[in-house]
Amino acid sequence: MTIMPPLAAARLWLSALVALVLLAGLALADGADAGRFVGSYTGSAEIKMADGSTDQRDMSVTISQAGKGFTVAWTSSTRKPDGTIKAKSYEIDFVPSDQENVFAAAMRKNVFGHEVQLDPMKGEPYVWARINGDTLTVYSLFVDAEGGYELQQYDRTLAEGGLELDFQRVSNGEISRSVHTFLKRVPS
């Protein structure tokens, strides 16, 4: 049996400790970028339509950690002239993809129980997200029955006290709807 000198043993332990810390850091980095966006945000916006008209909307979004990925849940509410409120809500889980800072939507489970994307060729949205610096972008692509497309892009950029939201809907190359607003962080 060979006995290792104390200094060599200490170096070996220190190297092992550094390797463990680096590996733990890499594991945490997988979903760490999304953690900066976690919170609830609310605000209102004036939506610009393709015909030049505008529509007032109340908006909210909640971003939360979900395993190695994250969940984005948002609601857009419109006040109708008769006083009623029409609200649309969406919630999508995102999981890490093979590309750095790009996340796949986990919108349904296949027969094996794995979360998979929907099929845009069947009229379902193809959804993904990416984190680029201080901006979390969610994309949603639809293919219509004639083979045309609609692409929605939600840019949510970290800002003092909340998020800057930039939304654009592009249908076959034409911007049909856009919005820019500030969503204030709701204290937790």
Termini, distance in Å?
A: 59 Å
Q: What is the strand content? A: over 45%
Number of domains: 1
Point out poorly predicted stretches. 6-32
CATH domain class name: Mainly Beta
Task: Identify the CATH architecture.
Answer: Beta Barrel
**Helix content bin:** 10-25%
Q: Please trace the helix and strand order, writing H or E for each element.
A: HEEEEEEEEEEEE
Structural class: alpha+beta
Rg for CA atoms: 22 Å
Q: Give the CA-based shape.
A: globular
What summary fits the major beta sheet? 10 strands, antiparallel, barrel
Structural summary, described in words:
This protein has 188 residues and is of the alpha+beta class. It has a single domain, classed as Lipocalin (Beta Barrel), CATH 2.40.128. It contains 1 helix and 12 strands, in the order αββββββββββββ. The strands form 2 sheets. The chain has a 10-stranded antiparallel barrel with strand order 1-2-3-4-5-8-9-10-11-12. A two-stranded antiparallel ribbon has the order 6-7.
Short summary of the structure?
The chain has 188 residues and is α+β, with helices and mostly antiparallel strands. It has one helix at 6-35, and strands at residues 39-49, 54-66, 69-79, 85-96, 102-105, 108-109, 115-116, 126-132, 135-143, 149-159, 162-171, 174-186.
Task: Based on the model shown, name its key terms.
10-stranded antiparallel β-barrel, two-stranded antiparallel ribbon, 16% helix, Lipocalin, 188 residues, alpha+beta
What layout of secondary structure does this protein have?
Blueprint: H1 6-35, E1 39-49, E2 54-66, E3 69-79, E4 85-96, E5 102-105, E6 108-109, E7 115-116, E8 126-132, E9 135-143, E10 149-159, E11 162-171, E12 174-186
Antiparallel strand pairs: 1-2, 1-12, 2-3, 3-4, 4-5, 5-8, 6-7, 8-9, 9-10, 10-11, 11-12
